[in-house]
């Protein structure tokens, strides 16, 4: 690569384009830099990835980082082809190429001198007006820009991604006094829409929002545990689920991010925080942590951390460290007493665990409250940072609301912790209030202000605040989301399908026909649907309620086909898991508007079944319809067979498209909070001149095709890839996909295809091999390989 | 009967299917470049060619529509030259030679291009539309059996251990490495123009293969078996061609005569152990040539798998030091339709180089067959 662009003919940066950026440069191919580059590539934007020039192949650092990411799990890339959008290079030979980039992200080592050297190099070549942002997590913006020209300061800001950038939704954006506010707005918009981030504006203070509060919380928790004699397992049970904090708690989280990071963060915080900040009083190095690091216990990336896996004697024993002695012993399961499972119970509990919870959460929440307006003017921004940066269910201010701000103030007095001004100010009120269906947040001015949402962000929770569902039962609801569009929402556990879901869906189709223009299938929950309720299915089989099961299959088939042939457009908007029946339902929609993180597939074979609600036929049609599928009777059923027989699940919407679940015209939304609005827009775009699809005709491969599949499966069995019962299940699947008894000269109708599915499903359900699989899945959550 | 000679041999570089440098090249374009290379190197008058006989094991997709004719037109052969596609699976392009030899003997033409091609990248093994006969599959499942399983069957029946197979595979890699390093393969290779530039070197050999490396590989076909990817020929993209003509024509035109064809044979065997196909075919060919195994100075025995190669060597009583002197298919690759012409051409070339009198080229064929050609140095 040798692009030479003279400074005089450098074009202006094109950040203003609505579509985003034409090319982005990331400097620093370490874990963060490389995976930021990968995520920009996930958005379809070309990236120039630069690192230092070393070795014979002077771009080997950047190249190596890309190669490594292709093997990393969880994958930084949504599709391996995204890697081709990253052009590797080095800062010596390829610096001129920076001139072609509309945004430059710096993610090199945390040293001001090295960063400033790089900034000067970039300043000489970058496109005029192209924003440069640092991914620093510790260095204040004012230190980074000190002594640099005004033109640089105007275009400089901090964009702080969280690791791993593809999966962590938080982005803190920080501007300096001189930063052009346009950059903050436009880059923020790009990161929101194209990269799918929730952008939180933070002030230029150490650790910004999430790390300032989060690391303080971890620090207080570790110190208090040592001082109060609370064990590692106890801490993670107390400071975990009861407060809506992931079950990794405190110690599990430190192991994950690296024990060795703690002293670095402490030192950097101590050096940069104002004197008198409560953080500093807690930031003295702990001898235990120093010893752990010296012994190589740096966390999961090392030999282990506060937890370790002992493999002595060939076994696998989970052990945890004794915070007093530093010795490891087998981890003890610790459960809180039933009387202390909620935050409120814990905080009033008279025992040691209650006392510990009071100290840690009292300190943490008070610290968070004391930092507004120092780190942010906006309590909702602080809460968003903690929910998205640390995966807390709710942020500190919402937690204080749960406790009750007045009660919380009393608790702080009892603990001898100064009551923050904001907590005093809110008094007997709450930090959040609902007014006319709009959430209002308490401001530093003592007044309530609506929590602002960027345009195009729509959640069912917002709709719910404004009124009642149009239709609803215990399993599902139908909502009016405006402009003539209805939204069908499943509300069961893991959004599994039961009779109630199908019943309401049937009613909803009738209702939408006369009262709405279009329908969207969507849920705010993390997962669209985990499929059929296996527990119910097994129960029915054990009762030998074959008639009931047959009815459920029939009802699923007829309801999904009613959805497909409804006289109005239906758009599925899946995010997270969409498995089994959850996948079949999206296959029956006119269009799919998926979240980029879509984990979908027809997984029935894993429990010894086949898709029985039309999924086999729909996958056959999708494979047939792809012009890239080779001609002849076999390639289409083979595409469907290879995916269904191994219960393949996509690891992204991009992969779902490769699997033919998403079609060419189906859309992908990067930002989880924009999925519903995008799906609604897609549905409305289909309304004019909408005609329901025509009934398909299946061209099948017949007995010869079935033999070919049987042969392939027999080969896999001898390779040890397929199990004996796989042969039975795959045989049933092959029978359906090749048209059963129908000859290759015959046209098979959709009804006949459904009949094949129904028969195949019922035949497998009568087989003990299938029942063993279902039972095993219900008991262990893992597939049985019988 | 007219005497038949081999008067030229070329091939493309062989590359791993789906990974190598020929994945983007259509098989018809690949074969056409090899045919042009043969014409240039032999100096044969194109208008004298009677027919282009092209071997291909899965003649569908880009390999369909009578590939023999298509390739002749892409290669700009005179319009009068015929084109036919021949399929005997792995034995396809050796069959091309046999067809030409029969025609020449009968006086039905003087010069033939006998070529073979397979893009195992662009047309998968088994084809896009495998539609086996259900009744035959029930009665004789071996007909459609995975080749790897037949290799396991042979290993079991002939008690050939994994270690023996690996020692054989290692020798194949070492012989190929020596041949490449000594430049002994470069003359036969026609550089191929691909969408990504010219390709002139083989891509299949793994010169760094070690016994330890082979011993560490996972079993490829049967988890209780002995055959690994290291002791099997790889899926390969490649093409090859030989010029087959009457001895009289070669003399008149001053073509370089490499070897005279003495006899040919095919023979069926049980499909489940198709790898021993060369045994009966070779015995028949030897008898027809009136010579014995001891008379052979050069043997090209296609290495579909190490297990079947060793079984054939043992059954026929072949001397190991004259077999696959420049390496075999385990190292060089096995583009199904192209292998037959390669080993016929290679055996003819080696007769000259090794100054031997008789050469055997033989190979096994899926579905249970063997094919063999005996040549004599001129």
From TrEMBL, chain A:
The pathway to which it is assigned is: Lipid metabolism; fatty acid beta-oxidation
One Pfam family here: ECH_1
TM helices/strands, residue ranges: none
Q: Does the keyword Lyase apply?
A: no
* Keyword set includes Oxidoreductase: yes
InterPro entries in the record: 3-OHacyl-CoA_DH_NAD-bd, 3HC_DH_C, 6-PGluconate_DH-like_C_sf, ClpP/crotonase-like_dom_sf, Enoyl-CoA_hydra/iso, NAD(P)-bd_dom_sf
Tell me which Gene3D superfamilies the record gives.
1.10.1040.50, 2-enoyl-CoA Hydratase, Chain A, domain 1, NAD(P)-binding Rossmann-like Domain
What keywords does the record list, in alphabetical order?
Fatty acid metabolism, Lipid degradation, Lipid metabolism, NAD, Oxidoreductase
Its protein name is 3-hydroxyacyl-CoA dehydrogenase
TrEMBL record, chain B:
Give the residue range of the signal peptide.
none
Report whether Transferase shows up as a keyword of the record.
yes
Q: Which residues form the Thiolase N-terminal domain?
A: 4-247
Database matches in InterPro entries? Thiolase, Thiolase-like, Thiolase-like_sf_Thiolase, Thiolase_acyl_enz_int_AS, Thiolase_C, Thiolase_CS, Thiolase_N
Q: Which UniProt keywords apply?
A: Acyltransferase, Transferase
Is Transcription set as a keyword in this record?
no
Where's the Thiolase C-terminal domain? 256-377
CDD domains, alphabetized: thiolase
Q: In which pathway does it act?
A: Lipid metabolism
Q: Which family does it belong to?
A: Belongs to the thiolase-like superfamily. Thiolase family.
Q: What is this protein called?
A: Thiolase family protein
């Amino acid at each position: 690569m040798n692009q030479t662009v003279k400074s005089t003919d450098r074009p202006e940066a094109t950040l203003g384009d609505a579509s985003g950026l034409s090319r982005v440069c990331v400097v620093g191919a370490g874990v963060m830099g490389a995976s930021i580059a990968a995520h920009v590539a996930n958005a379809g934007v070309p990236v120039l990835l630069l690192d230092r020039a070393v070795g014979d192949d002077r771009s080997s650092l950047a190249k190596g980082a890309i190669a490594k990411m292709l093997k990393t799990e969880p994958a930084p890339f949504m599709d391996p082809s995204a890697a081709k959008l990253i052009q590797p290079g080095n800062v010596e030979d390829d610096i001129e190429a920076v001139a072609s980039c509309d945004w430059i992200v710096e993610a090199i080592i945390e040293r001001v001198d090295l960063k400033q050297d790089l900034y000067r190099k970039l300043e000489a070549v970058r496109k005029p007006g192209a924003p440069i942002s640092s991914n620093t997590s510790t260095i204040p913006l004012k230190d980074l820009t000190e002594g640099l020209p005004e033109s640089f300061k105007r275009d400089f800001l901090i964009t702080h991604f969280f690791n791993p950038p593809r999966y962590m939704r938080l982005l803190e954006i920080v501007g300096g006094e001189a930063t052009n506010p346009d950059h903050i707005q436009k880059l923020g918009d790009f990161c929101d829409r194209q990269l799918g981030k929730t952008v939180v504006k933070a002030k230029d203070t150490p650790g910004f929002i999430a790390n300032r509060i989060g690391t303080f919380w971890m620090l207080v928790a570790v110190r208090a545990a040592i001082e109060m004699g609370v064990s590692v397992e106890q801490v993670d049970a107390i400071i975990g689920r009861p407060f809506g904090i992931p079950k990794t708690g405190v110690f599990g989280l430190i192991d994950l991010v690296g024990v060795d990071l703690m002293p670095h963060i402490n030192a950097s915080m101590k050096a940069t925080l104002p004197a008198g900040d409560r953080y500093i009083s807690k930031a003295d190095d702990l001898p235990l942590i120093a010893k752990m690091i010296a012994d190589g216990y740096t966390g999961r990336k090392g030999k282990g951390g506060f937890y370790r896996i002992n493999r002595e004697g060939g076994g696998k024993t989970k052990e945890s460290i004794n915070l007093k002695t530093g010795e490891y012993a087998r981890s003890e399961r610790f459960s809180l007493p039933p009387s202390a499972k909620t935050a409120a119970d814990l905080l009033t509990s008279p025992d040691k665990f209650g006392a510990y919870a009071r100290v840690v959460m009292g300190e943490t929440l008070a610290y968070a409250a004391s930092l507004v307006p120092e780190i942010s003017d906006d309590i909702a921004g602080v809460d968003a940072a903690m929910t998205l940066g640390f995966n807390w269910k709710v942020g500190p201010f919402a937690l204080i609301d749960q406790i009750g701000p007045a009660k919380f103030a009393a608790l702080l007095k009892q603990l001898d912790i100064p009551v923050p001004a904001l907590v005093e100010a809110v008094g007997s009120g709450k930090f959040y209030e609902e007014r006319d269906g709009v959430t209002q947040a308490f401001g530093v001015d003592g007044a309530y202000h609506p929590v602002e949402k960027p345009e195009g962000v729509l959640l069912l929770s917002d709709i719910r605040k404004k009124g009642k569902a149009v239709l609803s039962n215990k399993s599902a609801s139908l909502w009016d989301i405006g402009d003539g569009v209805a939204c069908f929402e499943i509300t069961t556990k893991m959004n599994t399908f039961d009779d109630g879901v199908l019943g309401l869906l049937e009613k909803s189709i009738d209702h939408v026909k006369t009262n709405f223009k279009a329908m969207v299938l969507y849920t705010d929950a993390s997962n669209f649907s985990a499929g059929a309720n296996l527990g119910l299915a097994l129960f029915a089989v054990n009762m030998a309620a074959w008639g009931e099961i047959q009815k459920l299959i029939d009802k699923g088939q007829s309801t999904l086909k009613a959805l497909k042939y409804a006289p109005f457009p239906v758009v599925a908007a899946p995010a997270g898991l969409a498995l089994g029946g959850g996948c079949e339902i999206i296959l029956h929609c006119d269009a799919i508007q998926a979240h980029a993180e879509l984990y979908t597939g027809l997984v029935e074979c894993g429990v010894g079944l086949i898709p029985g609600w039309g999924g086999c036929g729909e996958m056959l049609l999708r494979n047939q319809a792809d012009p890239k599928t080779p001609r002849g009777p076999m390639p289409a059923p083979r595409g469907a067979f290879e995916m269904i027989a191994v219960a393949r699940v996509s690891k992204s919407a991009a992969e779902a498209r490769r699997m033919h679940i998403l079609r060419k015209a189906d859309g992908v939304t990067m930002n989880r909070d924009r999925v519903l609005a995008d799906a609604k827009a897609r549905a409305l775009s289909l309304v004019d001149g909408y005609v329901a699809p025509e009934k398909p005709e299946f061209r099948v491969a017949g007995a010869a095709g079935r033999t070919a599949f049987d042969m392939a499966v027999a080969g896999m069995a001898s390779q040890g890839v397929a199990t004996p019962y796989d042969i039975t299940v795959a045989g049933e699947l092959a029978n359906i996909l090749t048209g059963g008894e129908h000859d290759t000269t015959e046209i098979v109708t959709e009804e006949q295809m459904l009949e094949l599915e129904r028969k195949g499903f019922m035949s497998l359900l009568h087989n003990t091999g299938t029942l063993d699989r279902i039972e095993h899945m219900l008991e262990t959550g893992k597939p049985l390989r019988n | 009967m007219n005497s038949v000679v081999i008067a030229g041999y070329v091939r493309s570089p062989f590359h791993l299917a789906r990974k190598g440098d020929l994945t983007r090249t259509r098989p018809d374009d690949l074969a056409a470049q090899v045919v042009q290379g043969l014409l240039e190197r032999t100096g044969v008058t194109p208008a004298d060619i009677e027919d282009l006989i092209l071997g291909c094991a899965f003649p569908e997709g880009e390999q369909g529509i009578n590939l023999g004719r298509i390739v002749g037109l892409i290669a700009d052969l005179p319009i009068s030259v015929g084109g036919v596609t021949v399929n005997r699976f792995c034995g396809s392009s050796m069959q091309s030679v046999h067809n030409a030899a029969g025609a020449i003997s009968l006086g039905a033409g003087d010069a033939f291009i006998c070529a073979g091609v397979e893009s195992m990248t662009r047309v998968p093994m088994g084809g896009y539309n495998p539609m086996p006969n259900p009744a035959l599959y029930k009665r004789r499942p071996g007909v459609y059996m995975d080749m790897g399983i037949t290799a396991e069957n042979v290993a079991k029946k002939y008690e050939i251990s994994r270690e023996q197979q690996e020692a054989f595979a290692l020798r194949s890699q070492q012989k190929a490495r020596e041949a490449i390093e000594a430049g002994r393969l470069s003359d036969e290779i026609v550089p191929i123009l691909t969408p990504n530039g010219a390709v002139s070197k083989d891509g299949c050999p793994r010169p760094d293969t070690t016994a330890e490396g082979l011993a560490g590989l996972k079993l490829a076909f049967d988890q209780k078996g002995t055959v690994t990817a290291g002791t099997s020929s790889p899926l390969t993209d490649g093409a090859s061609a030989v010029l087959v003509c009457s001895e009289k024509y070669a003399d008149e035109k001053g073509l370089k005569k490499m070897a005279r064809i003495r006899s040919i044979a095919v023979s069926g065997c049980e499909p489940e152990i198709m790898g021993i196909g060369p045994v009966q075919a070779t015995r028949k060919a030897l008898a027809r040539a009136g010579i014995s195994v001891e008379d052979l100075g050069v043997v090209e025995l296609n290495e579909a798998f190490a297990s079947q190669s060793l079984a054939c060597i043992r059954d026929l009583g072949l001397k190991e030091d004259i077999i696959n002197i420049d390496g075999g298919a385990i190292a060089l690759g096995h583009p199904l339709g192209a292998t037959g012409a390669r080993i016929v051409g290679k055996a003819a070339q080696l007769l000259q180089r090794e100054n031997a009198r008789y050469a055997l080229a033989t190979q096994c064929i899926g579905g249970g067959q063997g094919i063999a050609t005996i040549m004599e140095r001129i």
